[in-house]
Amino acid sequence: MYILGIESSCDETAAAVVEDGRRIVSNVIASSVAEQALYGGVVPEIASRRHAESISLVAMQAMKKAGLTPDQLDGVAVTFAPGLIGALLVGVNFAKGLSFAWNKPLIPVHHLRGHIAALYLTHPELKPPFLCLVASGGHSHIVQVQDYTRFQVLGRTVDDAAGEAFDKVARTLGLGYPGGPAISKAAKQGNPLAYPLPVPKVEGRYNVSFSGLKTAVMNAVNQGEMRGCPVVVEDMAASFERRIDQILCDKLMLAAKDTGATQICLAGGVAANSLLRSLVNDAAQKLGAKVYLPAPSLCGDNGAMIAAQGFYELEQGHVGDLRLNGLPTLPIDFT
Ligand code: KG4
Ligand code: ZN
Q1: Which has the least CB within 10 A, 62, 100, 178, 305?
Q2: What is the C-alpha separation between 293 and 282, in angstroms, rounded?
Q3: Which residue CA neighbors atom 18 of ligand 1 most closely?
Q4: Does the annotation flag 261 for ligand binding?
Q5: Where does the pLDDT of residue 335 fall: very low under 50, low under 70, confident under 90, or very high at 90 and above?
Q6: 109, 119, 134, 166, best to mutate for ligand 1 pocket (most atoms within 8 Å of CB)
Q7: Which of 154, 211, 178 is nearest to 301 (CA)?
Q8: What is the DSSP string of 154-222?
Q9: Helices 233-259 and 179-187, interaxial angle, to 10°?
Q10: Cis bond leading into 181, ω under 30°?
Q11: Distance of CA 63 to the CA centre of its chain
Q12: How many whole angstroms separate alpha carbon 2 and alpha carbon 241?
């Protein structure tokens, strides 16, 4: 089965064709991240405009690279939630048009379910159930993936998402956008023990909180400036990265121990973080659990992950029609 996947929830306009939810046939991405970086973060109106300009070209390229004609497709999957509403609507309306014109099922896909499905593209042998930390710019969830379309959220951030914390701290340190890769790069030259940062207290056994951590960095930077001894950016980047990754890893392992998980996964943009990947690898090994990580190129937003999840949603008969709307928020376990 061939599914065309379309993604436009944030700053990547992406389309891909995936076979049977597991094999990438084509994968095309046009990103407005360089332009967004000029403003220090995503400007929703710019994102929507760039999607509108690129989506047709990106989708047609994905079809061309796959060497498929529309009649060979089995469905058109599209991210419909959550995300920036103006950005989502571009993808949703375009997908509705294709579905109608080509007479193919329209498959609404939840963005975070898509991030999890990126794991199936990297590890053809992986099957639910498994425990997954999904950490992106907008979300940080510890999720029990019970089946391809059944999810239980065990824990979540009570304030900032992990990616958002990376982005905000990077901005404070003058490292630019997107913050995750910039902090990682600077951290490689720094000492992770240089600045003792707090472990924020939070209610809920598997919940996380990052706003206190972010504030601690800001305070240290401000105090350093006032006292005439500025923080060493590389050392602060390394200290912050170590602390946030350790918090994420510890919570994931706590959930893994409590639930007796034998398969532990990472997903979302933050899953590209190499320190987080190695911390989780080491900790899971001690638990005797197997670790599955998405290929770094599939951690960020892409169309292939949407097509992969679309395959499993279609299997369950989860199809939409021309009334489909974009939704800025929607829980991953929606029914
Ligand atoms: O999943 P994603 O591409 O888009 C959303 O759905 O939000 O995630 C983007 C987030 C950004 O906050 C970015 O800074 C973060 O993922 N990110 C990273 C890394 N690469 C991207 N965070 C930490 N380390 C990285 N290497
Ligand atoms: Zn994402």
Answers
A1: 100
A2: 13
A3: 180
A4: no
A5: confident
A6: 166
A7: 178
A8: EEEBSSS-HHHHHHHHHHHTT--SSHHHHHHHHHTTS-TTSS-------SSTT-B--HHHHHHHHHHHH
A9: 110
A10: no
A11: 24
A12: 39
Helix (H) or strand (E) holding 110: strand 106-110
Cβ(301)–Cβ(166) below 8 Å: no
Q: Is the dihedral of CA 223, 229, 232, 238 positive or negative?
A: negative
What pLDDT digit, counting tens, does each position of 279-309 carry? 999 999 999 999 999 999 999 999 999 999 9
- Protein residue with least CA distance to atom 10, ligand 1: 137
Give pLDDT tens digits for 125-151.
999 999 999 999 999 999 999 999 999
Which pair of structure tokens corresponds to residue 122? 């990297």
For residue 40, say whether it is annotated as part of any ligand binding site. Answer: no
pLDDT per residue as tens digits for the range 31-83: 999 999 999 999 999 999 999 999 999 999 999 999 999 999 999 999 999 99
Q: Which pTM value belongs to this model?
A: 0.97
The alpha carbon of 179 and the centre of ligand 1 are apart by a number of angstroms equal to 8
